[in-house]
Structure formats: C-alpha cells, structure tokens
Amino acid sequence: MEVRDRTIAQHRETLSPWACGDEELTGRARPLQPCPLRTDFQRDRDRIIHCKAFRRMKHKTQCFLAPEGDHFRTRLTHTLEVAQIARTIARALQLNEDLTEAIALGHDLGHTPFGHMGERILSKLNKGGFAHERQSLRVVELLENDGQGLNLTEAVRDGILEHTSRGKPKTLEGAVVSLSDRIAYINHDIDDAIRAGVLRQEEIPAPLLQVLGHSHGERIDTMITDIWRASRNTDAVRMSREVFTATMDLRAFLFQHVYTRQEVEREERKAAFMLESLFGYYLRYPEQMPEEFLSADRHEPVEQAVCDYIAGMTDNYAVDRFAALFIPRHETLLR
C-alpha cells in the first residue's frame, strides 16, 4: 500500500464525520497524477510553502509599519501563527489537519504591502476594487508559476477566498482558519502594541481579561479551548456566546486604541502617498512593469495589471521603487 493510500485509510477511520475527507473537493483546474507519498491537500500545502508569494510575506507589514526591532510580527509570522492555532483546533475536533494547514498558509498570499491600509488604497484606485482574499485566490489561480497558478484543490481555494469574517467556507476546516485568523491577529497585535509602547497592559478592560485571560498565552488557550467545547460533536465551528462577545469587544478595543491612533495614522498616510504615486506612475507607464504583468493573453484592464504588481510588492520594494521613480539622485542634480 502506498503511503498516500495508508494516510487516506487512517483518516477514514479517525476523522470526524463532518471533516472534509482526503478525496472530497479535490478538483483542480488541471488534473495531476497522484503522488505516492502525499495526499492532495498535503501537496497543496507544499506548493504554497514553496511559492514566491509565500516568501515575500516576510517583508510585508502585519500591524506596525517599519517597526524598530526583530520581534514584531510580519505577514509571514502572522500566517505561521494562524496555521499553528488552526491545526490545534482541527486536531481537537478531528478535522482534516492537512487541509486546514494548506488554507491557513495560503490565506494571506495576496495581501498588500503596508497591511490593511494598502488594501484600502488599492480598493480605491482599482476600478474593479480590491480585497486581499480575492487577491490571494488570484495569486494561486493565475499569478504564480508564470501565469499558470499553483493548481490547487477546490477545498483549499474555497478556504482561502472565504477566510474573512464575511466569508462562508464550504468546509469546517475553512471555518477553523477563519476563526484562527481572528484569534491570531487580535492577540499578537496586542503583544506588538505593548512592545511598541503604544498600549499598556493595564489599559485593556479588566472584564475582558477576566473572561479571556491576562496574558497572551492564556487568551489564546481560552479561545481555542472554548471553540473545542462549543463545537465538538456538532457540524459547526464556533465560540460560546460569552467568549465570542469578549473577543469581539477586545477587537473593537484594538481599533479604538491601537489601529486608529494618530501616530499610526500619520505613518499610514505616508505609505498611502507612496502607493498612490506608484499606481499613477505605472498606470501611465505600464511598460515599466515586469513583462509577466503585461502578458497579452491575460485580456484584463491595465488597472488590474498595476494592481497585481503593487499588491505583490513587499514594503521594502515599494519604498525602493518610490525612491527610484520620484526622488532625484545627487549625480543627476549635478549635471
């Protein structure tokens, strides 16, 4: 028996009846010969980890722009924390861990430089709008692998597209990733805000700490355990009313006291100006973009090509491009 077949057989015996089986929702745009070692979802996980967009996330903002210090989260470390939380929940609920991990690792592949501010700017500038979950799907379906995409399974593509709070994933594994994303960013953004000195532990409302926990680890443990207790032996993934309410109140607290602080918004305005300038430049001079974004067979408006190019930039690359295009060099001024 092949290793792949043995894994599938073991999952049939051990997974919840509500889990997505290894042979469900495995459709791809282009058929693949089965791998003797890996299931389809394991192959998807590996394809995501090895793609260029995954590597670029290490230099994309999570919460704080250009943080001074090595311990602040990036989009990549956020993704890894989501994957860890999601796998813990999936294992506890006897769901498909490989599918869960693949969705988690791919959910933010299309995120912009400079965090959600970059997403808002591109949504305003691009006639077709912009949402990072849709862009993540574009990455895996079109933009990676020289326009061939990663050829992922239906279940993983669905989980990536539907991972936000407004999404409705087809699988419980996708629902796990959606909740895990929220658990990860709420807790690590508090951690980073305290490290950056823009928030003090004693500012967090005491009633929320009493429900969720007083430390980073306690809060994550409370949320994960609550999901397990509220969801086990059911066909849904959810939190209890008490923990969900406290979690959403903590999220609202972050928006009021961290995400919209004047100093944060001041830095975001600088980044917004850079992205708006880059978008306008490449819209006027699209031939200055890499050729892969100008392929004639894409049959898409130039705005979409510019949006794809800028969305794929890291923070550092966007700053470098802005400097190269808009800041005169000293040797030029001396001529």
Fourth-level CATH superfamily: Hypothetical protein af1432
Assigned CATH architecture: Orthogonal Bundle
Secondary structure class reads mainly alpha
Coarse shape: flat
- Give the count of structural domains: 1
Secondary-structure element sequence? HHHHHHHHHHHHHHHH
Question: How far apart are the termini?
Answer: 73 Å
Determine and state the CATH class. Answer: Mainly Alpha
Task: Draw up the topology in text.
Elements: H1 3-14, H2 40-49, H3 52-56, H4 75-92, H5 97-106, H6 115-125, H7 132-147, H8 154-161, H9 172-196, H10 206-212, H11 216-231, H12 241-259, H13 262-284, H14 302-311, H15 315-326, H16 330-333
Helix pairs in contact: 2-5, 4-5, 4-9, 4-11, 5-8, 5-9, 6-13, 8-9, 9-11, 9-12, 10-12, 13-14, 13-15
